[in-house]
Amino acid sequence: MSSRRFYFSVDLDRDVNVPVLGRAAAGSLDRGSGDSPRWASAERGLAILLDVLDDVGMRATFFVEGRASEKVDCSAISGHAVGFHGYDHEDLSGEATGVRFSSEEIESILRKGFDAVSDNVSRPVCFRAPYMVFDNAVLEMLPSLGVRADSSEYRFGGCEP
Fold this sequence. Notes:
Layout lengths: L8 E4 L4 E2 L8 E2 L11 H17 L4 E4 L1 H6 L9 E4 L18 H18 L5 E2 L8 H6 L7 E2 L11
Parallel strand pairs: 1-4, 4-5, 5-6, 6-7
Antiparallel strand pairs: 2-3
């Protein structure tokens, strides 16, 4: 009998992140009330997901956006692995928003996100870039924060969906 492992990870951030041209922070999909970040659905979804994980006895890795850690009660994540996901879901590459950050600004964003998640959830040990877009400069900054793993890049290894 073969043994299989299943890894489950979740990004905890605002409702439906969308890059906004010319703006560093992500917006939320406009559903008639503007693109300001919405947190209520993230909090409700987190509670439902944690209940399901608890029911099946499974642990997950939560990649928490720094700002989300300040807006959403993340206390129930204890016992799960924690990573961070930027501070305000910034487009670190500038590809989607046209906002290009200097190395110092990227380092500040990473530190702010890391510190917020550390203060409000627990110390993150891994990272996932917002929009899954990053460059080597970002990767080189992560060890100074104590980050041991990056989950920003993936490849589909199975058959075509």
